[in-house]
Amino acid sequence: MKKGSKTVICLLLGAFSVTVLALAQEDKEGCMDHSLFTRLSGYYLRNCEEMEFDAHKFYDPATKKKVSVEGRKYVYSYYIKKELKGKKSQLQVARNYTNAITKIGGSFYDISGDSSRVDMKAVKGDKEIWVSVDQDNWKGNTYYLTIVEKETMVQELIADPEAMAGDISTTGHVAVYGIYFDLDSYTIKPQSEPALNAIADMLKANSSLKVYIVGHTDMTGTFEHNMELSANRAEAVVNEMVNKYGIVSGRLKAKGVGPLCPISTNKTEEGRKLNRRVDLVEM
What domains does the chain contain, in order, with CATH numbers? Predict the structure, then answer.
């Protein structure tokens, strides 16, 4: 092979290698940061996973004990860009996340003592957010972020329209669980359909019944925010009944009472789950 040809091939291979290297330092297609955090500058997302329901073991910042947390799980792998290798520290990476979590009232625990593994916990809207930053002793060049939004797995149980009607007839109201919303939002999740179907069937079977749709929250967050959130969620349920299920709008009124009518303690997650609900109250 001629010398000139070898030079051209080497140049082409060199250009190809540079291109591959540049592409390798870009976020993996389809990967985005979690909405709660902004990554430390100089890193790219090499991989990401999202599981609808899974578990992960964290250390609780309050008790320093390991607990298994279940819910929607996210796993992110962050790699530093080549030109910055060795210029970031484990402490710098950890501080980026602990500062963010404390700003929203959360807490953290440096398990390792050297910032290579830090676990965090915060309450955001109606969910507990658990976070682990694990640097695997790579001196700030690589770190892994695991996040679990704690929630109870949706049970395959369908509310009984007849039981609902019976409770309203005897007590004037019924608590409805199984209506789920996006975090700190009044967007109704698709897995709420069984409960919504049951409400609609009950209203259609009792055509003279008029009800208040009443939204409830726990004590997490500010009072004003919870009042607004509960009212918006109640209104979202009314809109769903009218627009999707054909219930006459005059039979429904949306009201939000925030945390004012708890049926359990707000000091435990189990109690807060009971307080987050929608009530149907006879007019």
Answer: 24-150 (no CATH), 161-282 (3.30.1330.60)
